[in-house]
Write a structure and sequence with these properties.
Number of domains of chain B: 2
Largest interface: A-B, 65 and 65 residues
Strand content of chain B: 5-15%
Strand content of chain A: 15-25%
Shape of chain A: globular
Strand order of the largest sheet of chain B: 2-1-5-3-4
CATH topology of one domain in chain A: Methane Monooxygenase Hydroxylase, Chain G, domain 1
Order of helices and strands of chain B: EEHEEEEEHHHHHHH
CATH topology of the largest domain in chain B: Fumarate Reductase Iron-sulfur Protein, Chain B, domain 2
Number of helices of chain B: 8
Structural class of chain A: alpha/beta
CATH architecture of the largest domain in chain B: Orthogonal Bundle
CATH superfamily of one domain in chain A: Fumarate reductase/succinate dehydrogenase flavoprotein-like, C-terminal domain
Distance between the termini of chain B: 57 Å
Oligomer: heterodimer
CATH superfamily of the largest domain in chain B: Alpha-helical ferredoxin
Radius of gyration of chain B: 21 Å
Chain lengths: 571, 242
């Protein structure tokens, strides 16, 4: 029998949260063995595309209370306030830790880390590395991780299921994409850090790898997905491709201007103007479009984001990547041209239900980063809170998983071998050995994405959500009868895409049904048929539990409130 | 404007093929499409068995390096309109073993990257007291070398790699240089010794193709020259170039 590799801690996902967890695990106990499993090379992870920055209270006059209140108000009071309090206290330490590891944070003339304004934040607290913050943070932490011999990487290994036996998580099953060989990796504890499911939408800032794998893995293992109806639409995506134009453009003083030449934010968030939170600005843009005040283009309506008044020196120093992207992908120079933008799917507030140490309801299973929901972001995440979220809760999960592993018994091999055989058979029979079929995987995926854009966008209605809910089983049926062109075992990305589409459909199912059930408007979830927030019924987290072949079972859990009572959310 | 353009894509499946071979696809021509869009269209609608890597489609994740009409390019920044009237020949990057179709094996780079110790070498201190100071001018010292996205275009363009496969190569040396120039680093001779040993800077014949193909404006050739200069200085001055 082939020996099964076994680790203390296994991390699925090599982005910022996963890498931070890996280093935290070995720092907690240097004898910890860590497997870092990713379907891509870690430096390809979607953290790389984060641009604007990383919020943390670094110095006076800012305070933990200020950051906490901004985050809670931004969340439309759906954040768990205990999680927020931990987050704001840990974030500055994490920013400094990354600095010590070499992150090239932009600096003040005296050498201290610079901060910039960001949406929904009442003061300047967003640290940044020009407008490639995520890129620099990811490469810094990945390169730093290379010095830890305890961390063994499984690059381009696609995880297809969790080993959840005897009431605990004991590892993962998946395949090395290069060989197609289905195998298991056993571990005393597993951390899911696989990011969001942005690719279930057509118009998204997310890279192709953001298919909600970890969310679906946990969901299928019986862990609820929490607050999945809350999907963030970023106000400023490139109209053609959805490439992100960072909020830092507005942080640095950019204007949003409609086709009548007005800074329309004055009508919606007069005290914050362009630095209102993302949910409100995105709704303002769509409302302006519907009133006929958008510019008309081949990809629909758009607004102008104007930084011409900042001048070339500021743009080249603080927004060089935006200038590069404009030149490359739109043929415009943002020094002299306004930037066309429209709202674009960007981030999922929802995720795997986890506590502030990352622990899920299944012993040995943890989650962190966008994949998780630790209660930080509620109904709307503030810009620049997700990078510190990955650091703070990635580190927390790494520490907790390492400590859990110290006392957990070793995984047992016999059932695992059987599970591997079952998974091998499932993948072969469902996809690799299927002789003929109908639609291609890519076509079914495109239809999912278009339908999600249409029915589960910035504004939602019962009719639209019901239509989407009815569409999902049809898409599943089509996937079950799809045409598979590639029957090879070697680097078969069609097989990976088919399995990813299964994950995306699971995630979409929780989004749609959670959205249907929440008959109110809160944060990013805006129901045209229920335009007001309803704290009596819905000051609670939606918990979606998997039921095979059926829509999820929904439960609600009260929000944790410590110091900040819900009030009207105006800016 | 043409209706379609021909994409000639290298196909190779080691389970079936003894040799790589080109396969042509007619794809719709769109003014704002890049080669990656065309490949994605083929995979979704014509032939699901074409394999390549990609993710961010915005020139930052470094996944989609490929040779386009013989030049190393990111698939996400090679616009169809720049290759009219076609055909566009899309091949895997040179100087790496081919795994499948356009997918190459970059594991040798991952080993080389680790070999140059691309991290701050310095005794770790508590985070409580705060950040190490670093002025904007000090960042400017290493900034361009920190822009490497590990896309491997420079390895594909390098004339030394095919002759000396063990050559640590442009990107890894640029990243080593990035840390050597970082005011927070205290490596002394530790990293430099690696770089001046065998398979490192002295293998470079200074053709400069690495810098010419870099999509992010990194100048690995300069990093190599600087390191050569500094190590020579180090031979003259026992405390090294710092």
């Amino acid at each position: 029998m082939v020996e099964i590799p076994t680790f203390d801690v296994l991390i699925v996902g090599g982005g910022l949260a996963g890498l931070r967890a890996a280093i935290a695990a070995v720092s907690t106990d240097p004898t910890t063995s860590v497997a870092l499993v990713s379907k891509v090379y870690p430096m390809r992870s979607h953290t790389v595309s984060a641009e604007g920055g990383c919020a943390a209270v670094l110095r006076e006059p800012d305070s933990f209370d200020n950051h906490a209140f901004d985050t809670i108000k931004g969340s439309d009071y759906l954040a768990d306030q205990d999680a927020v309090e931990v987050f704001v206290r840990e974030a500055p330490l994490e920013v400094v830790q990354l600095e010590h590891w070499g992150c090239p944070w932009s600096r003040e003339p005296d050498g201290r880390i610079s901060v910039r304004p960001f949406g929904g934040m009442t003061t300047w607290r967003t640290c940044f590395a020009a407008d490639k913050s995520g890129f620099h943070m990811l490469h810094t932490i990945f390169q730093t991780s290379l010095k830890y011999e305890q961390i063994q990487r499984y690059d381009e290994f696609f995880v297809t299921s969790l080993i959840a036996e005897d009431g605990r998580c004991e590892g993962v099953i998946g395949f090395d994409i290069r060989t197609g060989e289905v195998q298991s990796i056993a571990a005393k504890s597993v951390i899911l850090a696989t990011g969001g499911n942005g690719r279930s939408f057509a118009f998204t800032t997310n890279g192709s790898i953001c298919t909600g794998d970890g969310m679906a893995l946990a969901y299928r293992a019986g862990i609820p997905l929490k607050d999945m109806e809350f999907v963030q639409f970023h106000p400023t995506g490139m109209p053609s491709t959805g490439i992100l134009i960072t909020e830092a453009v507005r942080g640095e003083g950019g204007y949003l201007i409609n086709a009548e030449g007005d800074r329309f934010c004055a009508s919606y968030v007069p005290n914050k103007m362009e630095l209102g939170p993302r949910d409100i600005i995105s709704r303002a843009m769509v409302t302006e479009f519907e009133a006929g005040r958008g510019f008309k283009g081949p990809y629909g309506d758009y607004m102008h984001l104007d930084v011409r008044h900042l001048g070339q020196e500021v743009i080249d120093r603080k927004l060089p990547f935006m200038r590069e992207l404009g030149l490359e992908y739109m043929g415009i120079d943002i020094v002299v041209d306004p930037i066309p933008v429209r709202p674009v799917e960007h981030y999922m507030m929802g995720g795997v239900d986890a506590d502030i140490s990352g622990a899920t309801q299944l012993p040995g299973l943890y989650a962190a980063g966008e994949c998780a929901n630790v209660g930080l972001n509620g109904a709307n995440r503030l810009g620049s809170n997700s990078l510190p979220e990955c650091l703070v809760f990635g580190a927390a999960a790494g520490r907790a998983a390492a400590r859990y592993a110290q006392s957990a018994k070793a995984p047992t091999a016999n059932p695992i071998a059987e599970l591997v055989r079952d998974e091998e058979r499932r993948i072969a029979q469902t996809y690799l050995e299927r002789p003929t079929g109908y639609d291609r995987v890519g076509e079914i995926r495109e239809d999912l994405q278009k339908a999600m854009d249409q029915h589960v966008g910035v504004f939602r209605t019962r009719e639209g959500l019901q239509e989407m809910a009815a569409e999902l089983p049809r898409l599943r049926e089509r996937l079950a009868r799809a045409q598979i062109d590639d029957h090879s075992r070697t680097f078969n990305t069609e097989l990976v895409q088919a399995l990813e589409l299964e994950f995306m459909l699971d995630g979409a199912e929780t989004i749609v049904h959670s959205a249907l059930a929440r008959e109110e408007s809160r944060g990013s979830h805006a129901r045209r048929d229920f335009p007001d927030r309803n704290d009596v019924r819905y000051l609670a987290h939606t918990m979606a539990y998997h039921r095979p072949g059926e829509p999820p079972r929904l439960e609600y859990r009260p929000v944790v409130i410590t110091d900040w009572q819900p009030q009207a959310r105006t800016y | 404007m043409p209706q379609t353009i021909t994409l000639s894509v290298t196909r190779f499946d080691p389970d079936r093929d003894s040799e790589p071979h080109p396969q042509s696809y007619e794809v719709p021509f769109q003014e704002d499409w890049v080669v990656l869009d065309a490949l994605n269209w083929v995979k979704a609608h014509v032939d699901g068995s074409v394999n390549y890597r990609w993710s961010c489609r915005m020139g930052i994740c470094g996944s989609c390096g490929m040779n386009v009409n013989g030049r190393p390019k990111l698939g996400c920044s090679a616009f169809l309109r720049d290759y009219l009237p076609g055909p566009i020949v899309v091949e895997p990057m040179a100087n790496f073993p081919v795994v499948r179709d356009l997918v190459v094996d970059i594991s040798s780079f991952m080993d080389k990257l680790k070999w140059v110790k691309p991290w701050i070498i310095r005794e770790e201190t508590a985070v409580g007291p705060g950040e190490h100071r670093q002025t904007p001018a000090q960042i400017d010292q290493y900034r361009q070398f920190s822009m490497c996205i590990n896309c491997m275009l420079c390895y594909s363009a390098c004339p030394v790699i095919p002759i000396e496969p063990e050559f640590v190569g442009p990107a890894a040396i640029a990243l080593a240089r990035r840390y050597e120039l970082d005011s927070r680093d205290r490596a002394g001779q530790e990293r430099l010794r690696t770089l001046t040993g065998s398979d490192a800077i002295w293998d470079c014949s200074f053709v400069g193709e690495c810098s010419a193909v870099c999509p992010k404006g990194v100048d690995p050739a300069k990093a190599i020259q600087q390191t050569k200069f500094e190590s020579t200085l180090g031979m003259l001055l026992p405390w090294g170039g710092r």
